[in-house]
Every structure is written in C-alpha cells, then in structure tokens.
Amino acid sequence: MFVKVNSAGICGIRGRIVSTEADVGDGLPGFIMVGYLASEVREAQDRVRTALKNSGFRLPARKVTVNLSPADLRKEGTAFDLPIALAVLGAYGMTDMREADGCLVVGELGLDGKVKPVEGVMSMVMAAREEGIRRCFLPQENVMEGLVVEHMEIVGVTSLAHLAAMLSDPRTICPARASSGNFLEQEKECYDVDYREVNGQQFLRRAAEVAAAGMHNLLFCGPAGTGKTMIARRLPTILPSLSREENIEISRIYSICGQLPAGQPLLNRRPFRSPHHTVTPQGLTGGGRPVRPGELSLASGGVLFLDELTLFRKSAVEILRQPLEEQRVIVSRVRGSYEFPADFMLCAAMNLCPCGYFPDRSRCRCTPAQVRQYMGRLSRPIMERFDICAEAAPIRYEELRQNAGDNESSAAIRVRVERAREVQAARFDGTGIRFNSRMGKGALERFCRLRPEAEHFLERVYRTRGMSARTCHKVLRVARTIADLEGSETLSKTHLAEAVGYRALEEKIWEA
Fold first, then answer.
1. Rounded Cα distance, 296 and 279, in Å
2. Residues of the chain with pLDDT under 70
3. CB neighbours of 360 closer than 8 A, spacing ≥ 6?
4. Do residues 127 and 252 lie in contact, with contact meaning Cβ atoms separated by under 8 Å?
5. CA–CA dist 490, 458 (Å, integer)
6. Residues 329/355, Cβ–Cβ less than 8 Å
7. Where do runs of H (alpha helix) occur along 428-468?
8. Sequence-distant (≥ 6) Cβ neighbours of residue 79 within 8 angstroms
9. What whole-number distance in Å separates Cα of residue 209 and Cα of residue 414?
C-alpha cells in the first residue's frame, strides 16, 4: 500500500515542502530509505522502528520503502522522523490517513515514541502556507511558534500514538488557539541596562544617538576603561521597537539556529550580538552542514558589536565589506547558493595601541612602529565603512562620582531617535530606502541639497583632507541624520561640521 505525507525541511532560511512517501509490499523484509539523505535522516529508520514498537504497533515483516522527494534536495535534520513513522503506519493500514491528507507533519521521535521539538518550525509553516496547506501537526513545544504564522491551523502532538489516535478519531483534533497579538505582549521590552548609568562621555553618547537615529555604523576608539563597551551595549535601549514584520523575520532566523528561548516564539527585542574576537569568517557569514546563518544574520535588525576590533583576524574583518554595502550575505556552496539577511548596525570598539593608552604619551610606552603595526590590522576600506568614528576621552573624577540620576535616560534619547526615524520613513516612502545610511547617490542629490555656504564648506574639507567619494557621501548621510534630530529640512554648515568631526579620528589613526 502506498501513502504520502507532507513534511518540510530547511534550505538556508526558507522552508521547503518534502513529500514523504512509503510503500509496503511483498519481497525480502527490510526497511529502505532513499531520497538524497543526510546521515541523521538515514538514522531515522532505526528511531522510527523502535518508536513504533514502543508505541504499541507491531509491524509484520514486509518490505518497506520510504522515499523523500524531491530527490535533488538534500534532506537534513530530524524533523522527518514523525512523517516517516506516520507514512509507514498508513502504508501498513494501521491508521486512518484521510485527515492527514493535505496536512504538514514534522517532528523528531524519541525511542519511546514521544515527539520532540525541532528547529525552523516557523519557516516550515510559512512554506506550508505558500503551498496552500492549512493544517500542521507540530510537536507540542513548537505550537506557539507555529501560531505566529497567520491563517494556519496548528495541532500539537505529544507522541506518535497521540497522532495516530487523533487521525483515527477526527473529533479529538483540537487546533491550538491564540491571537497573534498576545505574542507581542508576552515579554515587555525591558532592559537591565540604561544610558542613565553612563557618567560623562557626552561626545560618545551623542555619537551613539546619531548612529541609532540613522542606522549608521559606529566606531569607538580610545584608552582602555573609558566606557566604550558600556555605551555600545546600551545601543539597543535607544533603538525603536520592532515592527511585527521585523519581529517575525528575526525570530525566524533564531528559530532556524535553535536560539529561540523556550516558550517564546517571538523575541520582541532588537538583537545585540557580540561575538568573541576568535570568531571565524564562516562564523560571521554562516555556513556549515547544514548551511545555517551566521552572526551577521543573527544581528540583522539590531546591533553587531565587535569589541577589541583590532584583535579580530583580518580575514574576518574584511569579510564585512560586502554585507555592509548590500545588507545581505550570499554563501556559495557546491550544491547551490544561500542568501541570508545582514541588515544590521555595526558598532565596534578598539584601543589605538597594544597597551591601550595611546595617544596619552605620558602613559603609553608603545613605539610609533608598534602603533602603526597595531593599527595596520585595519584597512582603509574597512575604516571608511564606519559612518561615525568617536574618540573616548578619559573620565574626570568629578564625572565618575556624579549622581546617575542626573544623566539622561535611554527612554528620553529613544524619543528623539524614534522621531528622527519617523521623518525618514515619511521622506523615503515608496523609495525602498528605510534609513539615511542607506541612501544612494540619487537619493543624496535629492534629499541632501546644500546651500552655497554649506557647499563651499564641504568642498574645502573634501580637498584639504583628501576625502574619498565614499567618505564624502557618508558625511552627507550623517549630516542628514543630525538635521533630522533637530527637525531641520535643510542641511546647514553646522550639521556638516558635526558630521565632519566624526571623521577626525580617522586622520589621527593613519597619521600615527
């Protein structure tokens, strides 16, 4: 008897519907699985046979053939266990398959027949919806994640016997119910850090606000212990709240990587990723078998923070060039290419010399050659991809000991950032641009027109500092954000001067 059950796998960050076909017939008894299978899928036959036995099903000795199609798609992961077991049961005629027709079934099986959660359920359910499937049988632990996808009927399954019993008696099939709005209310957006805790460093705080308002890449430099990392880790607290579309997209990536918190189908907070400086280029871009997103994609929609930037291997830093320009990562393998989102705000922190005290020559004992060698780990093209470079000054004792209650809170800064983002949303409506930092040449000419005084100032700076065209455009983008924070429609010389000031550190680094 031939039976087909719909299941799904993951290809990059997208779900792919896979047909699980089983046939039981005469011949030498055995269990054969075909369909371009990874090792963990081939091992499913042993899990399935043992789970069937321990669930009370006694299978006669027959020839069982299982095929997972399409044959050109490599099947990976353990989500095929449950559909394989169900297809085998149906092929033996041991359960009614009418209610399973046109449904999606995914889940991993334990040897006792219990159904275990799997990764990437959100993408699988989305793929099912695109294929016109409206009912999904999912592991009970994945039900909330499946309910995030609208207009789908989600049924939780605890064991193989439970699924077989529901199919035999359709009256016992009870779809899970929850309004999608409840997911956004499960976790209030709260942080255990706040800019109120940061004393001094007004220049760095201002740079962080401008960067957050326009989604600009930000670099902090300066002596050790001056609060660079402290300020960077509070960046998510001043970024606008996630829209529902952003939330689903980000949660989808975390689901595929198995990093969704238990019982929390949506993250509700912008990501903040801070990989260690030993991370490999593949760890940043993604890869492996199966191919999964890396840190750049996990930071999408939020902040990627590289602390001690000069300690990262050069190949890992240089690999950021294309993602920072295109907001995506393409991982090419023999079996195909995979595209992952990489729309993040890059923030980095670093010292200017090995000892960490440069340019304070009263404390720094590094030779000019040591400083140049240390800074030589960063190329000019990488430095130019930072829109804002801010240098941290040593904190005075009076600033260190001041009352934290006197500092401006993250909530107050966030109000200004959100107001600037609203201005950008209205300005770029219908253009496909979301932030000032994403403006191309055409958008710069349209939205960053300068008055004669400001034009002469920018020309003078461009010539005297020997700016590249990329750097000049970044100055205009940052100036546009500064003007938005002030509610100004036109760019003035003052806005340009502040934007140019965020490039002064670049000259100091290369003159060292």
1. 12
2. 178-189, 404, 506-512
3. 223, 394
4. no
5. 15
6. no
7. 441-447, 452-465
8. 7, 8, 9, 106, 107, 108, 118, 119, 120, 124
9. 8
CA quadruple 99, 100, 103, 104: dihedral sign? positive
Cα separation, 447 vs 428, whole angstroms: 9
Q: Where are the alpha helices (DSSP H) in 174-306?
A: 180-186, 202-214, 228-232, 244-256, 281-285, 295-298
Write b or e for each residue in 418-457: b if 16 or more Cβ atoms lie within 10 A of its Cβ, otherwise e. Answer: bebbebbeebbeeeebebbbbbeeebbeebbebeeebeeb
- How far is 498 from 291, CA to CA, in rounded Å? 43
How many Cα atoms within 13 Å fall on the side-chain side of residue 282?
8
pTM for the complete prediction?
A: 0.90
Write out pLDDT tens, residues 110-144: 999 999 999 999 999 999 999 999 999 999 999 99
Q: Residue 381's closest CA among 312, 432, 319?
A: 319
* Per-residue pLDDT tens digits for 146-165: 999 999 999 999 999 999 99
Reading the block at residue 106, the tokens are 């995914």
Q: Phi, psi (5° rounding) for residue 429?
A: -55, 125
